[in-house]
Design goal:
Radius of gyration: 19 Å
Number of strands: 28
Number of helices: 2
InterPro entries: PbH1, Pec_lyase, Pectin_lyas_fold, Pectin_lyase_fold/virulence, PEL, TAT_signal
Organism: Micromonospora cathayae
Shape: globular
Keywords: Carbohydrate metabolism, Lyase, Polysaccharide degradation, Secreted, Signal
Main location: secreted
GO molecular function, one term: lyase activity
Strand content: 25-35%
CATH class: Mainly Beta
CATH superfamily: Single-stranded right-handed beta-helix, Pectin lyase-like
Number of domains: 1
Amino acid sequence: MTLTPLPRPATTAGRRPHRRTALVLAGVLAVPLGGGAAAADPVATTAPVVSCTDAPTGFASVDALGQPGTTGGAGGQTVTVTTATALASAAGSKDPMIIRVAGRIQVSDMITVVANKSIIGVGSTAEITGGGLQLGSTTRPGNNVIIRNIRFTDAEDDSISVTNKAHHVWIDHNDLSDGYDGLLDIKRESDFVTVSWNRFHQHSKASLVGHSDNYPADIGKLRVTYHHNFFDGTDQRHPRVRFADPVHVYNNYYRNNALYGIASTENAGLMVEGNYFENVAHPIHVGYADSAPGRVVERDNLYVGSGAPETAGTVVEPRTYYPYTVDPPATVPATVSAGVGVGRVCQ
């Protein structure tokens, strides 16, 4: 059905005071560490599901733009880093590299990640705090990057920024909370991205797709898949999308999202299917704030204690790009709660 949108605020709450954090200067370990025991996770209500998948599904799996899916730093040197200086050096290397993050690393601002990198947390205690990761710069692209099994906290800007035409990016099994701006933003002509099995919590703005209403260069780009993520009490942007077609949102768990679940704007096309919305008054918006309406096709979602979705128009079928299987939406809360976040991937 199509509903008349309710009035919406042009600005949103939840931004935290900007703060600066000192850069830690210490060493790097050149050999991998063994995986640690998984820490207790209040999200999991059953035994944690451990993923041994080394390749994404969704848009990051697509052979396009000269890249055969997303392989990250496969074939490159493996290093284990314990400081911001070592992480920045490895992430900025011109060579393919598998970078293992061990323990808690405090950074300042954004660390630039360039092409052909896998950044993977060791065990269940890897954390990047105080800053975040930016994929690529205007002169050094951040293509073919994998980020897995890391806790991101207290970023002074975005926790993860996929930007500057980065393509083939897989963001999987991370825990993102308590940042300053967006926890995960995908923008500026980036493309072929999969966001899977992440937990977003203790924050307002979860995930933006599309830089601004005044950046039409994103048209024809920003193809993103979101699947099996837990948007746990975050207020908005799960995702909020401009221009992209299609963005595929399936089998995600939405719980207690105060402002809205998903928003499609500026003629973006979203396929929303097999998701579970719990206590979300506005699960899907067509248009938001000052942004023009987008398009949404929704099918086989569950709305428990939630409002009715807005829909409009037609959307490109994701199956024209890749195969996928949608879990029954009633199973999503248990499956996602048991499987998201850190400590649940093979080491």
